[in-house]
């Protein structure tokens, strides 16, 4: 074989070896499965958390009326209503989602789902079904709170406040509070005890530091979208100080349900989870980096999970 043939053969072999790697780099990103598509659209992870919050609200009322199947049905209705609110949020924010790296893969942005009136009908039907079933099978009070939770997230927060004011997530925090009230109303309609009110207050206070931490972590996204999240409006350093102050108020408030009747497991989780959240917020205040903000965001989720788990376990131990 002469030198020219050898060179040609070597080049062909090299090209053949590089072809799979080049194809892998240039291959389009795999589309999410249909299951993941709808999990994303309806924000089911958030919905399950909201449903768990409603369950905690029901189980925190010792000796109340209501049957287990009514509580379970109410929790399902809260999840469906929350999912409707989540889908409506994505429907209304398609333009903002397209500008943010964190959300530009959502189905209305990518075109996997057609942005049109069909989805408004689906979302409205889901909310009407959830509220209607809660009203008929549980009671009107529980149904009303179920509706208010979805309404405050989908309309008050998403449509009225998010693009207009830096205090958007403060009012949006009422969505979690209404879930607590819905659960409690399933077993004790027409009565909001100090314990239930204190739990609703905790959920209201939890939302701002949770989402403001996320806003600091994703600050470039929110700037690109022009969304006036508080840490973007005030500046990241000032926003981090506000996260710490709001976390301190939250942690102090988590002790109120213990004062109104929850047991030692809840108290331990409130103290331990609260100390952890305060540590993360203090670290963010001292060094307001994206990494510290993301850590604070994740710790906030863990703290809420500890509180809810403690309520569920204490209820199980009570029998």
Quick structural gist:
The chain is mainly α.
Structure write-up:
By secondary structure, the protein is an all-alpha fold. The chain folds into two domains: 159 residues, UbiA prenyltransferase (Tetracycline Repressor, domain 2, Orthogonal Bundle); 127 residues, Up-down Bundle (Four Helix Bundle (Hemerythrin (Met), subunit A)). The chain is built from 17 helices and no strands. α16 runs antiparallel to α17. The longest helix has 29 residues.
CATH topology of the largest domain: Tetracycline Repressor, domain 2
What's the assembly state of these chains?
A: single chain
Summarize model confidence as the mean pLDDT: 90
Low-confidence parts, pLDDT < 50 over ≥5 residues? 1-28
Number of separate domains: 2
> CATH homologous superfamily of the largest domain?
UbiA prenyltransferase
Overall, the morphology is globular
Largest beta sheet, briefly? Answer: none
- How does CATH name the architecture of the largest domain? Orthogonal Bundle
Q: Which percent band covers the strand fraction?
A: under 5%
Elements, N to C (H/E)? HHHHHHHHHHHHHHHHH
Number of DSSP E strands: 0
Radius of gyration, whole Å = 24 Å
